[in-house]
Amino acid sequence: MRPSAKPQIILIYPKTGMDFGSTVAPPHAVLSVAAPLDKEGYRIAILDQRNQAITRELLQSLITSETICIGVSSMTGTQVKNALKITRIARELTDGKVPIVWGGTHPTVLPEQTVAHPDIDVVVIGEGELTFSELIHALDAKRPLKDIKGIIYKDGGLIFRNENRPLMDIEELLPVPWHLVDVDSYIHRDMYVKHRSRVLDIGQTSRGCPFRCGFCSSASIRGRKWRAMSSDKALSMISETVGRFKLDGLWLRDDEFYIDRKRAFAITEGMIGNNIDVSFYTSGTRVDVFLGASDEELLSMKRAGAHTLKFGAESGSQRVLDLMQKGITPEMTHKANRRCQRLGFVPAFGLVIGYPTETFEDMDMTIDMAYALKRENPEAQLETMAQFTPLPGTPSFALALEHGLKPPQTLEAWSDWLFDDYDIEGLKLPWYNRDERMWIGNISYMSILGNALGNALDSVSSMPLRLLFKSISGPASAYFRYRLEHKLYRNAPELALVRYLRRKLFYESESTMT
Hints:
By secondary structure, the protein is of the alpha/beta class. The chain has 18 helices and 15 strands. The protein has helices at 28-40, 56-62, 78-94, 105-109, 111-115, 129-141, 218-222, 231-245, 261-273, 287-292, 295-304, 318-324, 330-343, 360-376, 395-402, 434-457, 463-485, 495-507; strands at residues 8-13, 43-48, 67-73, 100-103, 122-124, 151-155, 158-161, 199-203, 206-207, 227-228, 249-252, 279-282, 306-314, 346-353, 381-387. Helix 9 (261-273) packs across helix 11 and helix 16 runs antiparallel to helix 17. The chain is globular, with a radius of gyration of 23 Å.
């Protein structure tokens, strides 16, 4: 790349672990912070490790004398490991002369521990659009960082944490700078909207969630506040993106798109009025919010293209749901499932096991509920039964500490903090013994192989490959589905090979699988 009149900013989105098919969505974490700077004319390079190898040679070709910042986004788990590898290469190539800035959910909840790493200079805490823009201006002008809200940084060997930045007005969000990425590489046949071929995650029309689920990190990042752009702006965003990229499906990644039913109704009625022909789904739907909606509101959603509703059912045990502070009952989940069937929506249910004090009787109730939902509504989808993973900043983290959790004390140690893999050593689930942790891992893996795998393979774009993979996986899926439904999870030595292959292919490999 030739030097330009403006300094170059390199933004990196590392691999997350399970990156193939429609799981590879646009890197909105870096696109959103790039938007204000792109508007000002800064030259920005976005590197997404999920669809391109980020090598020493690639970074060397991008770094110039005008490079003022290398930014890295990371969630907890595998992405930390990959982010650290890339950060180490960047540090070596720049000899420490270019500031390396981390942002994302993990640095936000553990900023002091993150910035203490020798290869990291600054951490952006929380929403980064305004903070990162001010940081770049300061670095570009070689001004001190002491007045920039929302950062923690090192200066002269000392760590300084500035005042927190208030949450931004979502109405002020700029359009996604799609020209900074290869958009077609993120347009897929989708695991949820299977009858459409050009489905894209277009971003958020709202942020945050006002509810208090104990395992969710949203509260620590966004303070249990739900903020939305106006229905007119949301409709314009949907219409422009669908038309520009000729989409027939989309994902709205709002945590709670339907929480303001009046706003959601205005958006869906606008989509109908503008003849926007898409099928869509959103990141999350609460069963109580869904049950509180009128048929008129839901049928408007249906006419606008709402296809799959992803519900956080979480548990079949009322005791565990109360412990989670979920605010729902298993019967409400069943009622939502039946209503989806009546109105023609496809429900997808997320479930969690391994909560502190949760017994295997509780977990068996969750398994029973899952398959009862499937018998009740054959169109219902069952997602991975994720293992409870204590995350800093969540309400349940204190509960986990009370039951023996000893959280990692270094940034590197968070690399294996995975929600869907075995906890053999008892680092995440110390309230169970080794055999019990193996059983929980077996449940999670059986749910992946028996339920979630088929949905994931449906997102493979090539029909011959899709049919091949499904023909190979079909018998195995049926086998593990039977075993899980009948609670035959305590002895499954065959899963050791599956786990080995999964870790090698997804968590430890740096190759891309697009």
